[in-house]
Specification:
Layout lengths: L1 E4 L1 H7 L2 H16 L3 E2 L4 E5 L2 E10 L5 E10 L10 E8 L6 E6 L1 H19 L6 E5 L3 H13 L4 E5 L3 H15 L2 E4 L3 H7 L2 E4 L18 E4 L12 H6 E5 L2 H7 L1 H9 L7 E4 H6 L11 E5 L4 H18 L3 E3 L1
Parallel strand pairs: 1-7, 8-9, 8-11, 9-10, 11-12, 12-15, 13-14, 13-15
Antiparallel strand pairs: 1-16, 2-4, 3-4, 4-5, 5-6, 6-7
Helix pairs in contact: 2-3, 2-11, 3-4, 3-11
């Protein structure tokens, strides 16, 4: 029988540390040819739209599935979530349905997890200070993941809504047992960062790349549309760029596409994909002074890897509702 796993079920069984391991394995499979992953297919109509994201991951810890995510702006007035997601997890050998899963919390965790993987391979070993742009769900997941792979002692949060920043400070400081504070001086907060995370819905650059100090690692997470960007051209020019997937970033990452259109960088500026670094096909950080940038637009392998992990944990724990 297939399982229905709601958000609470997944929150019960899914940990960030385990998700980081699953996502790391998925990118290793991607780099070694063990993945089938078509580009996401977008659709729209009736005031909203969404995307379908299928993937197959080979290996003992792999999986097969498809996530459908939608965004309907009118939902706010109806007191409904703006974004909804559902994932169908299938048995890789037979195509049999294993589970129908709420993908809201799972999406936040899988996106946080890839930031953790990137920081594991690209941030300096002695990184202690994180600056986070954004105070929402994704900013929280990103900070949690980075703290899972580095001995972080301090986090600074920057958000245009003071109440959101205050909630972030109160909640994340207790959760992670580190010093978390709201930044009031953006240039100083950027310059202080050993790891800098952008997890906003901004359409234009949110800081000046000249503020970055040598040795910082950047996780560029929030922007995933060709005409939007969080990072300015200076940041991109100064950094060694690692993409989650080159083709996906060249289709959707405004952070890279806009500097390309300006002629400020060439496609060859994308140094490697994350899987190349994980497998050792390409070296990651080579000096303590270089600026590294991981640019992610989100891949279906992240969803399937984390879904397969959550499904196995739910079966072991006896959690979920059998579908008949």
């Amino acid at each position: 029988m297939a399982l229905w796993l709601n958000r609470q079920d997944i929150e019960t069984v899914l940990t960030m540390t385990a998700a980081i391991g699953a996502v790391e394995n998925a990118f290793r499979q991607l780099a070694t040819g063990g993945v089938v992953m078509p580009q996401r297919v977008g659709f729209g109509g009736n005031g909203g739209g969404g995307a379908a994201m299928p993937a197959y991951i080979g290996g003992a810890d792999g999986g097969l599935g498809i996530k459908v995510v939608t965004l309907f702006g009118g939902n706010v007035a109806k007191n409904l979530p703006l974004i909804n997601g559902t994932l169908l997890l299938l048995e890789p050998d037979t195509g049999r349905l294993l589970a129908v899963m709420d993908a809201g919390y799972m999406t936040a965790v899988r996106t946080g997890a890839v930031g953790g993987v990137a920081a594991k391979y690209l941030a300096r070993e002695d990184a202690q200070t994180v600056t986070v742009f954004g105070a929402g769900v994704q900013a929280r997941a990103q900070l949690e993941a980075v703290c899972a792979v580095r001995n972080i002692r301090q986090a600074l949060v920057i958000d245009p809504v003071p109440d959101a920043a205050a909630r972030f400070v109160a909640e994340m400081g207790v959760m992670l047992d580190i010093d978390v504070s709201a930044a009031t001086d953006n240039p100083a907060a950027v310059a202080a960062a050993d790891i800098l995370v952008t997890a906003t819905s901004a359409h234009e650059p949110i800081f000046d790349g000249h503020w970055l100090r040598p040795g910082v690692h950047i996780n560029g997470i929030g922007s995933h549309a060709a005409g939007w960007r969080e990072l300015d051209t200076t940041t991109v020019q100064r950094a060694k760029i690692i993409a989650d997937q080159r083709a996906a970033c060249l289709a959707e990452a405004g952070d890279l596409l806009i500097p390309l259109q300006e002629g400020a960088i060439q496609e060859s500026a994308i140094y490697a994909e994350l899987g190349d670094i994980i497998t050792g096909n390409q070296p990651g950080r080579e000096t303590s002074a270089e600026i590294t940038l991981f640019k992610s637009v989100g891949l279906a392998i992240q969803d399937v890897a984390v879904a397969a992990l959550a499904y196995q944990a739910a079966r072991t724990a006896g959690i979920g509702q059998e579908l008949r």
